[in-house]
Design a protein that fits this description.
This protein is mainly alpha-helical. The chain is 62% helix and 3% strand. The chain has 39 helices and seven strands. A hairpin with a 5-residue loop joins strand 5 and strand 6. The termini are far apart. Belongs to the transglycosylase Slt family. Belongs to the virb1 family.
Length: 996
Amino acid sequence: MWMLHRCRWCPDLGWGNRLMANVPTFTPGKSPDGIAAAPETKIDPDAFGAGIASSLRSFGDQMGKAGDVLAASQNRQAEQAGMVRANNAQNSHIDQVNTLLYGDPNDSTKPGFLNQQGPAAIAAWNGFVNQLKQTQQNAGSGLQAGTTARDQFDQNSMRYTQMALDQARQHVAAQAQDYARQSVGSTVQMAHQVGVQNYGDPRALSLGLGRSQQVLTDFYATTYGMKPSDPVVQQKLQDDRDQFFDKAITAALQNGQPIEAQQRLLANRGLISPTAYASIAANLRPHVVKADADAVTRELLGQPADDGVVAIPRDANPDDVMDSQIRIESGRQQFDSSGAPLTSGVGGADAPVGAGQIRPSSAKAAAARVGLQWDENRLRNDQAYNMTVSRSYKDMLLDRYGGNQTLATAAYNAGPGRVDEWLKTYGDPRTGAISDTDWLKQIPFRESRSYVSRAGLQNHGKPALSAGYSPPDYDKILSKVDAATAGMDPEVGDRVRANIITRRNQWQVQTATQRAALEKQVSGIQAAQLNGDDSYQPAITPIIGQFQTLYPAQEAEQKTHDLVTGQQAATVFAGMKNGTPQEIADGIRSLQDPNSAGSKAAVRSMKGMMGATASPATGMNGQIAPEDYQLHQQFVERVAAFAQRRQEALAKDPVAAVSEASTVQTAQQHLAHAMQSNDQNAIAQAQRDAITASDAMQTHQGVLRPRILTEAQGQHDVQMLTDADPAKTSAAQILDALAGRYGGDSDDSAWPRVFGEYQEHFGLSPDYVALGIMNQPNQVIARADMERAIHAGSEQQLTAAAGVHAGSDAGKIDDPTSGLPTLMRDFLGTTMGNRAGLATYNAIYGSVKRLVLYYMANGKGFQTAMNDAYDGILGRKYDFNGTMRVPKGMLSATEDATSRVMDGLAPDSLAPEGGDPNLTQAQRQEIALSDARKGSWIPNAHETGLTLMSSSTFLPVLGKDGKPITVLFQDIRNGKYPPRLPGINSVASISPSLVK
């Protein structure tokens, strides 16, 4: 018999069982299955002989039977062996068929036929059938034909092969049908896509729908044998039409074209089922209502379409359109702010000119058309002539384009030649091939599109300068809603009213926002005007227009006056701001006369900026018109305010204030050129020249103490010093780099002045001041110690640290008898005559004290720390004698030089002396000379030399040139004061040239 075993790879098959022969079994002590047991024999002792004979006979019979049984067993075993081979062959066949059907999970090259999809399954069918047959042959090749095993294998394998073939046939049929459906579906979707992409083109819609319907008709005819008239086919075709138009209309809606979507729906109503039509229409309605309402709202408000491009209505008044054009072209102005004919600057001699901005080449024929004699001078200087000729030219264009105002206005702006080209390219609105608006949207010149749109708008688009502009009359517009929405969906009217009410509310809010933005813009311009910037004149006219639209008339007029007087004042003051204080005062005094030439020109310019139509701003007898006095007075006040602002700027940042002067700019340009050359000598000379030019201009404009650094430069340098990270950059190195930038230790170096400005104007910390003066080679170690002391903590922290090592000595530093005050007595004496002397002393005292504490905190004794700190900062830098503080090693030469200068003083070498009127001039000179010779020499502001101070007033003694008498260290080094020869001590022996 055969036992059935379920196949592990084919659980879903009803016939997927392995076959196995039932093999006989053997148990020890028992006969094998199928072999009868021998009968039990009893031996009779009494009949032993007879028994033997009988037993022998029986034994012979049994032996015969045993032979038969043995032969039968051998046959059975052979048969069972054949069946085992048949079973193995059948199992192999099942495995191979299952692999063909389901694939081998361990071999990606054998996916299995039932796993093939679509076209792949169809293509694999024939190969699968051949492999199936070959599998049966291969599996049974080891079985002998005609045997029971072979017969059994053939029967079972044929049945299993047929089962596999049936299952594969069902699979490929299903795949073929699915593929056919997919192909049809894809083709239909492609046809529908045509509708989505071309919803605005009826011809494309028809082609797309026709293709879709034909594909479906062919599919049902081929696949199911159904005729087009079959009800099932008819329903499928209707469903397809509904889907097609739903997609096309939805596409139009998604592209923001609900009106286009509605047109497509209405045009194809007969092709859409009532149910689908109602559904599409219901979805479309709110969008159409909104679009209609928005369009009516824009029409009532006189606004352009959403894209900003709108054609000129064909029933628009041509004169109104031309008025708008002239306002756009020139603001109705024939002349610019300088009084010259207004010209666009494009086209050379044939450039558009005047109020109508018409080209002379076009104007000549236009003048002849209305019977005017051609006169180019009048075209340029006679506004009435210019506007008449411009209107005539526009009429010529209207005649050329059949009265189409959109085309004629575009031609006025871009030229008729371009318009003719655009008509050929985009279609001619006059033939109905394209609408005026669509044509206007197509032309490539944005300026022309905007120009035509603005010219055609009668309310909202009216140019800002148009007289009498006011917000729309919303109540009047609301009264027109019913008439404008007649015949439309009732909801459109309601929505239009809501739109207009919303716009009215928005206007009330938005004007406040616009006013705030405008005020901010105007404030920026006025701030620039205060700084003498007169470059904003082109922006003035549009702003004045906004004043007229956003403010009541009186307020708009006042704001206009403020703006134009500020602009004119900035222009006038720009021409005088680099003068001396006296020159500026004289200029303002001249402008205070309303009938001066400057005042008349200023008023004329201001009225031009405001768009006044009256030409000269003067009345009878060449005097300023009475109505312009207030304008003139406001203008003069603004000029005076600018002058005051100028003085404030010179006081705060004189270098920046004079930087726009031509001499200063020229010197700066030379410096920039020299820096590109990398020639250090040229750079140094150019820098000296730039400083000299700036100093001269500052002095010219009344600055008593010219500076080298701008506010920005000084703040940057000081910030860079104080922010320096000691772990990365040494402040001393930064100071040295800055010193090198300004001349370093050269005789004509600007560094002493720059360093003085850091202290006086930019608040350089006293500790960094000390670092700055520690620039001698013998101060290198002390300078490094000082920088470490700066970053070692606060004075309180250093005092505490010093106390740890020095005990009570840390508190003796400020002791007036044994501390720093005694050690620094000589330095104090050199600061008393300087206006910043006490501040200088305190600053240096604090730095020396910090260094003393630092030394003590690091283990030095009190006296050693004091001596080392003092020497490191002052002792190795200077020599002292009374009030004199001079570079180390120059005391003797300086004393000699100052003595020579003192000896050389004479009555006529000093500035004229005031004083007691009862004294003669000679007596006053003698008193002044005596006072000067009793004076003392103190360091000047930048420590570049010594200045002689009066003994009575303790003010600098002035030479006959009005400048302080000063001995410069660089002059001493350069030999200007040679050593005295023995025996020459008289005043007469001193050259007057030595007195500085």
